[in-house]
Amino acid sequence: MDKWTPSLWLTAKPYEAYKGTEGITLPPARKLLEQSGLLVSQPPLSSSKGYQSPPHNARLDAELSVLDIGSGLGQVTIALLEALRAHQGRSRVKIIAGEIDDSLLGNLRDQKKSDAWGEVDVEKLDANQLDKPDNTFDYIFANFLYFLLPDPIAGLKESIRVLKPGGSLSLSTWACSAPLQLIQRSIALLPSFPLIPPSPPPGGSWSHPEFVRKILTDNGLTGIKIEPYHFVQEARSPADMARKMLPVVPIMTAKWGEDRQELGWKVFEKIEEVLTAEKGHGPVKIWSVALIVTAKKPQ
Asked: Which of 28, 31, 55, 205 is most buried, taking the most CB atoms under 10 A from its CB?
């Protein structure tokens, strides 16, 4: 059932909400792979043209274990598999796509049934309490994950625990979220909205590069690199972009109480109205800035 309706939008499970939003966080996923040193020069998923040979330190000739934690719709895993297919040695890379939500896991397991996911194991994993031994993975990727966890620092510590000495941790976080700004502007255009302000995503400090650097340094990581990445998020129309906001609006309106159902749907209507006024009825582009972060666990 499509729950993109005024009466059902709040009941959408994560996969139902996120379906169709892959492009929102896919560009940073590709950038994470590039900055990690595992792969470079990621092309669009539809083409393998434009790849460069990986650097000597990319270690594609070695047996590598990779964890995509908080995999969601599998953006990191999809981008990594596409990239590996352009290189020799892909059979020597083993990937775990870890996710805790059952609805998202169902989608990942459907992906696993295809031949394209032969190198991937899909597992139910809690990022705050990973059921894995110490020093297991060569590379860990966490695309827009830690700041959303109940305990972000505990999640980070768990990733470091299961990372091998000399291994690479790559994470992304928002520096400036265009979806968040778009929703805030749309809420401001409602004739009336609850006195309680809309709630931003938790972990707002993770938007600041020096905060992220300090957290990683305090937890013993070295070789820290933090790069801002300006990227576009696209939709076919203002209505399509409004639909892509379904995962975010529930977070923003979480404290609205009884007004949430009706006014929350009006937020989607205002998003479409704002974008139509600015962009017309055709394709829509909005721009965000992510922090692309890589660090090493000391030998």
From this structure: 28
Res 47 pLDDT > 60: no
Structural class in CATH, domain 19-36+62-297: alpha beta
* Three-state DSSP state, 185: helix
pLDDT digits 0-9 by tens, 69-83: 999 999 999 999 988
Residue (of 1, 10, 5, 36) closest to 249 by Cα position: 10
Q: Where are the domains of the chain?
A: 19-36+62-297
What sign for the dihedral angle of Cα 285, 289, 291, 292?
positive
pLDDT of residue 77: 95
Percent helix, percent strand, percent coil in the chain, to nearest 5: 40, 20, 35
How far is the C-alpha of 173 from the C-alpha of 144, rounded, in Å?
5
Residues 212 and 206: beta-carbon distance below 8 Å: yes
For residue 115, give the DSSP letter. Answer: G
pTM: 0.88
